[in-house]
Amino acid sequence: MRFPRATHLLACFQYESDAVAFREQLEDRLQGFNLELALEKTRCIEFGRFARENAQKKSQKPEEFDFLGFTHYCGKTRKGFFKVKRRTSRKKFGLSLSKFTDWARKSRSRLTKGEMLRKAKIRVAGHLNHYAITDNSERCNSYPEFTN
Fold it and tell me: Does residue 11 lie in a domain region?
């Protein structure tokens, strides 16, 4: 049985064997409640301070993952230490821009210019209240900006 509302879970482990064991135990536990994992959204990736080095040895880039509207990726601090970095996921960014554009098209004929500008500022502020986090300035700066 699948419920229409999904529960999101992100589990991190130091060792792959722990991750595999956790997944097996989770699947068994869910089966007891007639639930199942969404296989298209379930995966095990190498992520962490050694992921970049290991991927470069294979001439690849370290894997990224999307979770709660953000793409999480391996980065470094200014001093060169490992850091989990986040940016607005491509999917959520595009969806937000298209919703904003649709709203603007519909509002042009119904609102005065001043009222539309005030409401647009509120919409942009709402987007930035969620997505304006450390390491996400590039995506936030490419979102529409309304200044006085």
Answer: yes
Q: Once rounded to an integer, what is the mean pLDDT over residues 66-74?
A: 92
Calculate ∠ Cα 139-64-90, nearest 5°. Answer: 35
By residue range, what is the domain housing residue 33? 1-44
Region at 34 (left for phi over 0; alpha for psi -120 to 50; beta for the rest): left
The answer to whether residue 33 sits within a structural domain is: yes
> 116 lies in a domain?
yes
| Integer Cα distance of 106 and 104 in angstroms | 6
**What span, in angstroms and rounded, lies between the C-alpha atoms of 73 and 75?**
6
Output Rg (C-alpha) for the chain, integer angstroms. Answer: 20
Tens digits of residue pLDDT in 121-140: 998 998 888 899 989 988 88
Confidence band of 33 (pLDDT split at 50, 70, 90): confident
Where are the extended beta strands (E) located within the chain?
A: 65-67, 70-76, 82-88
Q: What is the pTM of this model?
A: 0.76
